[in-house]
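Friendly challenge for the regulars: who can give me the structure tokens for this chain first? No prize, just bragging rights.
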Amino acid sequence: MIPVTFDEWRKCIEHDCNIPLTKAFAQKRLAVYQDRKNKETQKFVSLYGEQHLQNIIRWLKRI
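First reply, four minutes later:
Bragging rights claimed.
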């Protein structure tokens, strides 16, 4: 299931994946996801779509 709300995403990351949502984590992920030339970002968009990428970026900024 692809999360569609911040709360769903947070639960997925923190509880299902056991990754603490820290400021450092958010900054690292934002550096990747805001770089359109990054292969990981390109793959993410191909798998999950542009809208989900924008959601993730917005949610990471909340952290």
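The chain has a mean pLDDT of 97. The helical segments are 6-16, 23-33, 39-48, 50-62. Your move, everyone else.
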